[in-house]
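Could you please consider the sequence and fold following this short note?
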Amino acid sequence: MDKHSLKKLAVFLGSSICVLQIAVIPVMANVSEENNYLWKSLAPEGETSVEDTATPRARGDILNKGYVRLSNVDGKAAIYGETLGNFVSLDEVGLELYLEKYDGTTFNSYKDWSYVDYNTSDIAATFLETVEKGYYYCLRGYHYVIDDDLYEAVSTTTNGLPIK
């Protein structure tokens, strides 16, 4: 092959690689509130509380951690969620909580709550929720902080807890 043919081949291969890279760009799917694959396992029958903590990259730039806990208190769901930032006054701190009920196969959306606060370092919510007894429930949390142009978020998911 002569130099001219090698150049043409190199340009053709380079162009082909660029086209392939564009054609193979992954497409992000719209995630629904029912992420049935996120739950871990079912807690043993005698268990009264389950929790999960998530921390971005060992410790994020502006997000310290997200935390959720689900407890069985006299047949009611005791719910606690917290988003903790790294600084005293962040532009926005958010917490979304999703209580899900196990139908024997998957967890499905049961109830949800959303909290947001401004110019603060954390946000927390704790309350008792009356639920249908005799089922397993799990609690998912979505925790985020915003400061200037920075946005960090983590998700948490407890094991399934029987509430009787």
User: Anything to note?
Assistant: Helices lie at 3-23. Residues 16-37 have pLDDT under 50 and may be disordered. The first strand starts at residue 49 and ends at 54.
